[in-house]
Amino acid sequence: MKLTILGCHSATPRTNTNPTSQVLEIKNHTFLIDCGEGTQVELRRNKVKFVRIKHIFISHLHGDHFFGLVGLISTFKLLTREADLHVYAPKGLKEIITLQMKLSDSWTNYKLYFHELTSDSSELIFEDDRVEVYTIPLDHRIYTNGFLFKEKEGERKLDMNAVLNADVDVAYYRKLKQGFDVEDSNGNLVNNKSVTKPPNKSKSYAFCSDTAYSEAILPIIKGVDVLYHESTFLEKNEKLATPTKHSTAKQAASIAKQANAETLILGHYSTRYDDLNLFKEEASEIFENVELAKDGKTFEF
Ligand SMILES: [Zn+2]
């Protein structure tokens, strides 16, 4: 999995910082997560091929998370895109985007599908043979979801020495990878585990922005490999976090620790802070493996 941070700051675009947007490359998919103003510029800067993006996940309808979307949809059209585009977002986004397209008479020439979300419980919103995506209902001022991206378990791997020693016909290799016992050339049963190795561990990534501190998400993100959790404020400004339904770095670390996450990535920083290292210092007191999101930074896991 490869995560590219296109923008990780709250509120407004500024000269050197962008509002929220990320690209997750997972099992040959290129998923766009949130689409703040300026996202298409950052996609170009980070050399993400537009044509690869077929699924866009929008957490909520605050502008710093989706004001770049209509521009991106329009650019796809100008680039004569033909592939379908699926957008997963809170109910209301379809109305906003179609009104903009209608009044500017700029309908797309490709198929645009809106999957509008309304549930307050976690639900499976995308699945194929490689990946599953679930919503993570968050606690914010308006209806908001995070997203959990999970690789499906792959096939078992052949232990070629053992396979050859066991004298298994090549026609059975497929069955072995699928976990079945097979017969050798003399008709004796070959135990699958004696000639195969477990598949690579399937990884998971949870995106949680924007949200107040919420232990309700713990059962959904338990054991996640990488957790992106917003930390708009430092603990000294906790009084600002509560009414705006945002989190502090300390709170994000507490969630990561309770969820038993492998790595925590912090982001969605308020523009009031110049020294972002303070976020890492604060979170590191509670949780060991803390990373700071930064526009243009990539994480591979
Ligand atoms: Zn928000």
Describe the structure.
The chain contains ten helices and 18 strands. It is α/β, with parallel strands linked by helices and 301 residues long. 24% of the residues lie in helices and 28% in strands. It starts with a strand and ends with a strand. The structure holds zinc ion. Zinc ion binds next to loops.
Number of strands: 18
By DSSP (H or I, 4+ residues per run), the number of helices equals 10
How large is the share of residues in beta strands? 25-35%
What Rg is obtained from the alpha carbons, in whole angstroms?
22 Å
Oligomer: single chain
Share in helix? 10-25%
Helix-strand pattern, N to C? EEEHEHEHEEEEEHHEEHEEHEHHEHEE
Features:
10 helices; 7-stranded mixed β-sheet; alpha/beta; binds zinc ion; 24% helix; single chain; 301 residues; 18 strands; 28% strand
What secondary-structure arrangement, pairings included, does this model have?
Layout lengths: L1 E6 L13 E6 L2 E7 L3 H7 L7 E5 L11 H10 L6 E6 L2 H11 L8 E6 L6 E4 L3 E7 L7 E7 L5 E2 L1 H6 L7 H5 L4 E2 L5 E2 L1 H4 E2 L6 E5 L9 H4 L4 E5 L7 H7 L4 H10 L4 E5 L9 H8 L5 E3 L5 E3 L1
Parallel strand pairs: 3-4, 4-5, 5-6, 14-15, 15-16, 16-17
Antiparallel strand pairs: 1-2, 1-18, 2-3, 7-8, 8-9, 9-14, 10-13, 11-12
Helix pairs in contact: 9-10
The protein binds zinc ion.
